[in-house]
Amino acid sequence: MLSEHAFDTGVVVINYAETGVAGCPLMVLHGGSARWQSSLPIIPELSQRWHVFAPDLRGHGKSGRVAGGYQLKEYVGDIVAILEHVVKEPAVLFGHSLGGFIAIMVAAWYPHLVKRLIIGDTPFDPAKLRAGLKGGEERLLYWRDIAGTEHTHEEIVAALKNTPVAVEGSPDAVLARELFGEENPWFHDMAENLRLNDPEMLTAVIEFDKMYEDYDCEQLFLLISCPVLIIQGSPMHGGLLTDEEIERAVMLLPQTTIARMQTVGHSLHTQEKEPVLIAITSFLDSL
């Protein structure tokens, strides 16, 4: 049975969900501006075979806020504390997007805590990542302005629906409600995520350099000793991880499996769960 718990790291209280069978622990780390519920599409299947832990990262969901405390190394500290004091044995880590940055650093700095590492479409090159975030800075600023509990869920839904969205091949932006459909469930899911986001967390993402100062995959990959699965979102559907980055990673990592998605982009299991589940279970079964 799935249940939620709170764990005080000594710095921040982390909310996490737990479910599944007794046995190998598998921790799922969500992407930026999300919460543990973004993994609900795959948790039922994963929990049939593994003991699943799914935390809300600091500044997300029901976890606590830490003023000025959104560097990657600080997220890492939270996850390490849960692994040491809650999980209490080496675990499989599956990190999607922001969760992938954190999982990579945990596996590099605390190899004794990580049995297997699964990276979900997390970019490896900070320069490319910075350029990509610059391209979406206007959207992040908008999200920051409407994030937080001072806004109601309904107010954030309305703001998201009225967001102008650039359409390739068209000189004019289109309102999100017209592009995605008035009743698209994404509006309500994203609104609840943003309502439970700390706006300061989004500020850290926008300012970039301080948050990512320890993210150097050229060095981190050399410290990782466990088997690694890299799940690449389809570039044709918005995947962020490039073939060039993967080729470099394979040279640096000791034992690497690549799963290239054909029909889903960066959103992975939040868009279509089956290919992601196949990649995860095949990788873990092969070991």
List the SSEs and their pairings.
Elements lengths: L2 E6 L4 E8 L4 E5 L13 H5 L3 E5 L16 H16 L3 E6 L1 H12 L4 E7 L5 H10 L1 H10 L6 H9 L2 E2 L8 E2 H5 L5 H10 L3 H9 L9 H7 L4 E5 L10 H10 L3 E5 L12 H14 L1
Parallel strand pairs: 3-4, 3-5, 5-6, 6-9, 9-10
Antiparallel strand pairs: 1-2, 2-4, 7-8
Q: Which residues form runs of ≥5 with pLDDT under 50?
A: none
What is the H/E string?
A: EEEHEHEHEHHHEEHHHHEHEH
Helical residue percent band: 40-55%
Radius of gyration, Cα only, in angstroms?
18 Å
Describe this structure in words.
By secondary structure, the chain is α/β, with parallel strands linked by helices. The chain has 2 domains: 3-130 and 210-286, Rossmann fold (3-Layer(aba) Sandwich); 131-206, no CATH class. 41% of the residues lie in helices and 18% in strands. The strands form 2 sheets. An 8-stranded mixed sheet has the order 1-2-4-3-5-6-9-10, sandwiched between helices. It has a two-stranded antiparallel ribbon with strand order 7-8. β3, α1 (43-47) and β4 (51-55) form a beta-alpha-beta unit. The protein is globular, with a radius of gyration of 18 Å. 40% of the residues are buried. The model has no long low-confidence stretch (mean pLDDT 95).
